[in-house]
Amino acid sequence: MVVSMHEVNDGVTGEGVGAAATPGAVLGPSRSVFSLRDVAVSYGTAPAVEGVSLEIGAKEITAIIGPSGCGKSTLLRCLNRMNDLILGAKVTGSVEYHGIDLYGSAVDPVEVRRRIGMVFQKPNPFPKSIYDNVAFGPRILGRKQNLDDTVEQALRRAALWDEVKDKLRQSALALSGGQQQRLCIARSLAVEPDVLLMDEPCSALDPIATARIEDLMADLKGDVAIVIVTHNMQQAARVSDRTAFLTAEVDEEAGTRVGRLVEYDRTEVLFTRPSDERTEGYITGRFG
């Protein structure tokens, strides 16, 4: 970022913050990584998400769930300015990252995306070797010293090192789907992000690969905050500390479909004692 970013490591506390947003939105003593206030996203004249306010804590996994078309991925992309790359997209409201306005005029979106990594639904390794995939980010940043150590450390953190250590110069495209997804996670970790955003990272994987990714997320959350979008409510219940439930409100006359935050709370509370009947209806399968 053009703005000095060393201060983000100080964080801000979540105590008392967001109490007016939604039930359970107060983080208590946990540090807040993101603070969203009345966030709205539109594509051209079509609204996609409106009125989202919540806090996302450090060293936690936050899940975003909801039916198709409710704006889960759109909201996720707000957190590292990926919506900037979509023609006609407009974000309003406030998105703060450790107290810094992510959409401030002095903020470099490229630096934002280095600090806040993204793992997509479909594994997208580069058509390069396993080594070059992981080394790509550090090389772009001019980090040429100890590159072997950086690659090894990232692959170890992604629980992939033992499987690929003897074939680092082979094509990443030869890996299985689950291995490719962990490679993409390693590629993100190589630039030492503060946050990992995951957009349906297991939807294309088999149960065994999914379990490995979930175990990996649990291991990583001690070092990075993780925000995951998932259609799989069982996955959200298994891996996340907090869950945000979004739904889509349809205006038949205007022909619009707008995503809104219904409820945000500790995962065990949201899944066992939801405060809104719409949340209960979704998690019990009555709609969505």
In short:
The protein is α/β, with parallel strands linked by helices and 288 residues long. The protein has helices at 72-78, 109-115, 130-140, 147-157, 161-164, 177-189, 207-220, 233-239, 267-272, 277-283; strands at 12-13, 31-43, 46-57, 61-65, 89-97, 100-101, 116-119, 195-199, 225-229, 242-251, 256-266. Strands 7-8-9-4-10-11 form a 6-stranded mixed beta sheet, sandwiched between helices. Strands 1, 2, 3, 5 and 6 form a 5-stranded antiparallel beta sheet that branches.
Description:
The chain is α/β, with parallel strands linked by helices. The protein has a single domain (6-283), classed as Rossmann fold (3-Layer(aba) Sandwich), CATH 3.40.50. The protein is 30% helix and 27% strand. The protein has ten helices and eleven strands. It has a six-stranded mixed sheet with strand order 7-8-9-4-10-11, with helices on both faces. Strands 1, 2, 3, 5 and 6 form a five-stranded antiparallel sheet that branches. Helix 3 crosses helix 4 (147-157).
| Structural class category | alpha/beta
Number of domains: 1
Low-confidence region ranges: 1-30
- Can you tell me the CATH superfamily? P-loop containing nucleotide triphosphate hydrolases
CATH topology: Rossmann fold
Shape: globular
CATH class: Alpha Beta
Q: What series of H and E elements makes up the topology? A: EEEEHEEHEHHHHEHEHEEHH
For the biggest sheet, the summary is: 6 strands, mixed
Radius of gyration: 19 Å
**Total count of helical runs of at least 4 residues:** 10
Q: How widely separated are the two ends?
A: 39 Å
How are the strands ordered across the major sheet?
A: 7-8-9-4-10-11
